[in-house]
Amino acid sequence: MPDAHILEVDQLTLRFGGLTALDNVSFDIKEGEILGLIGPNGAGKTTCFNAITGVYKPTSGTISFRGESLAGKKRFEITQSGIARTFQNIRLFPTMTALENVLVGADAQHSTGILSALFRLPKHRREEEAGHRRAMELLRFMGLHTKADELAANLSYGDQRRLEIARAMATNPKLICLDEPAAGFNPQEKRVLMDLIRKVRDQGFTVLLIEHDMRLVMGVTDRIVVLEFGKKIAEGTPAEIRDNPAVIAAYLGVEEEDAS
Amino acid sequence: MSKIKSALAAMPKPVKIALWVLLALLAYALPLLEPPFITTPGVDFGGVLFVVTMYMLVALGLNIVVGYAGLLDLGYVGFYAIGAYTVAILTSFHANWPLLLALPVAIVATTISGVLLGAPTLRVRGDYLAIVTLGFGEIIRLVAVNTEWLGERKGISNIARPPSIGGTEGVFEIPHLNWDSGVPLLDFNDSTKFLVFGVLDQIPYYWMGLTVVIVVLFADYLIKNSRVGRAWEATREDEDAAELMGVPTFRFKLLAFATGAFIGGLAGALYASRQNFINPDSFLLLFSILFLAAVVVGGQGNRWGVLVGAALVAYLPQRFREFDDFRVLVFGLALVVLAVLRPEGLFPPKRTVRAKQLEHELDELEEGTDSEGEEKARA
Amino acid sequence: MNFEFFFNNLPSLTVSGLAFGAIYALIALGYTMVYGVLQLINFAHSEVFMYGTFAMLWTVMALGGADADGVELVAILLASLVAAMALSAIVALVLERVAYRPLIKRNAPRLIALISAIGASFVLAELMGLRDRVAGWLGLEDDLSDYVGKARINNSIAGVVEAPRWDIGGVSVSSIDILVILSAVAMMVVVDQFVRRSKLGKGIRATAQDPETASMMGVNPTRTIQMTFLIGGLMAGVAAFLYMLKIETTKFDVGFLLGVKAFTAAVLGGIGNLRGALLGGLVLGVAEIWGSALLGTEWRHVVAFVLLVVILLFRPTGLLGESLGKARA
Description:
Chain A has eleven helices and ten strands. By secondary structure, chain A is α/β, with parallel strands linked by helices. Chain A folds into two domains: about 1-80 and about 175-260, Rossmann fold, CATH 3.40.50.300; about 95-170, no CATH class. In chain A, strand 9 (about 225-230) and strand 10 form a beta hairpin. By secondary structure, chain B is mainly α. Helices cover about 70% and strands about 5% of the residues of chain B. Chain B has 14 helices and two strands; from the N terminus they run ααααααββαααααααα. Chain B has helices at about 1-10, 15-35, 45-70, 75-95, 100-120, 125-145, 205-225, 225-235, 240-245, 250-275, 285-300, 305-320, 325-340, 350-379; strands spanning about 170-180, 185-195. Chain B has a two-stranded antiparallel sheet with strand order 1-2. Chain C is about 75% helix and about 5% strand. Chain C has 14 helices and four strands. In chain C, helix 2 (about 10-40) runs parallel beside helix 8 and helix 12 (about 255-270) packs parallel to helix 14 (about 300-315).
């Protein structure tokens, strides 16, 4: 089913005390597409990510992944079931090597326990081997294979961003959520990264992308959802979004009511 | 230092293994060699070495909890006590089991107590964990003090010793070295029977302790280099990120706690068996602090550093008994000085060293370009 | 369980528990404020308290408190209060300077700071416990023998203050207990108001909430931290004075258990929260005394720790929640 929905967000609302961070937001992601989630600062993009990955519990509304509700699932269970993410402010494991960081991701699908490890049972060997193979593959894909034994803390900023994506991909997700992966990049680096994201999709992943830079989002995404002040104000193809007056108003910082 | 290290690393594997075996043999032979200066005047050297191995064992266990998983445990002596009391009860106070039967029971009981303590408390924040574990250690001791069934303050004596091999005379005797004349001579009047766990000669206990340390060291290595070790480290570095990368952090913290308890219980049981007698004063809170100090002094997270730290903490006060009154004072000073001057411990994990080196190199590079720039400016 | 004894003596048990609790609360203040500002368990704070008890003891001895009564005794006791507060404050400030500031400057991990605190605690306690030796090195052991003797055993001022028992509504209570409770609560109110209203207090709260922003807004972090230790030290001095009035004996290692209890009180109330420290202290003191009346005094400390564990399980942030920064402080 090429058009099957992998993730459905239905009337999602999130309140913190008196503040409504997300207000009745609904959208879905189709299998194999790159969906952009955009909006001005404080629009609720990262909050939306956090709700999907289980960091926040929705006040109301539901999120279902591959037809199954995520309500009540723990964060690691959500990851194991096939949603992986990166972080807006990089959160690698600084004292671990690049390779080990990716291995932690790969371990999400493994079940080696202390006994298998202690007695080097076949399961440990099998999973360790598969994990290493996959991790090196991903590092190569990200151009980081020469730095596999480097500590994550010692990698350059750009390498750290790419390592985060590799780590997320290693969990073998169906849906991968990238939270401003191009933050802090120059235009040239951004272009390279967008090519990379397309390649990620071509490998069979569905991508949910938060990005600030409108131009880049337009270039890489199949569809775009626009948030403003916690509400969805538009949804459509890049071309439709570009011409949407509400989006233009939001990005120019003019309230619709004021403009009219 | 680093040259020696790289030279060691470059050696072929058989040579390395041979070196390790040699080192281990040396360790086993240490109490027989009675090397001058190192040996402890006035205290039985074998007994001191046995205590050193117990501290090493405890430090390895606590290192899993504190160093690998990053959980601050201030009540580790509680597990040590549970292991010791279980053995004491089963082999002397309420039953007559042989040690080898009681030992596994003690370890299982301690591990279960670790899970029971950890399951509710590992959900609370790190600093609270410190105080809850502190309370746990004290509760265990106070319960022992107040419960008739546990011997109250009087304690429990006649705890079973490990079974000897070859009856009371052993299979063969090994002479010690005597250094009195300035050169080492074999002293056939002073020998150790292999393998008799008696009252006077402590050396067999040391051999037993050392063997257990080596086994635990191997196990530690195998576990650390696996999914389990990575999960611990990831949890320590960033618990939320680890959870979002699919690590069931709570389960792994509990596992670290249980593994630590396992080793602590094992050490406590062996200690009780060698002491033959325990009372609540063997499990003062001070010991939890000493254990923690052993881990931190050596360099938490580095198993070799932790072993050295344990050896120092256990050995120095025995070697310099004339300063016995001042040992806690010196010990406290050492902790402050160490924390202020060398916070990563005497032997930080290799990685920390590597990261620091790189930082240093970068600093130098920057300084270098700066001075170049200055020179250019001057020109 | 000794219910009969418990119910017959409930009022006086409660008063005694509140008095202990009030002392815990005053010590807890030091833990809670330092934790609020630095996120550091100031493990050596118990020794700050212990030095206060000795300052009180020595002052009473030096001024001849044993032979004094009436106004003279009151004057001596007031002098000993000042001495206790002064010595505790000095020890707290030295502690901050030597054991913590170098670490804070380097942004050392919290575990390392805790290790330093534990080390400092050992050093302080042992210096007091070896004061006969220290005086010997200085050649002063004869001149100071009254003060440095009995270095490792109990030192007492028993019999100096003979406090009457009051009959309140048919219940006999110790006047010292009442004094302890009232003065502790009064001191807590003073500190609470100080932190809420004064400029320095606002600096402390600002630093607790967001050190970086606070320092950008002109709050001097070093001075704020010093201030925090100073207040904690002064209150530990008051606690030491009241403790000596009530218990009358002290020892070089008296700090440890009291310190653990006070920290428990701080966590119980919600660490970082001043009013929480008072509530936590009182609850802990009463629970302990009630518990020991029911189960036997030997279970007193066990009751305290079990209470802590249970409360943390059901309310992980303590009774009143954690907040030095928030308006509640």
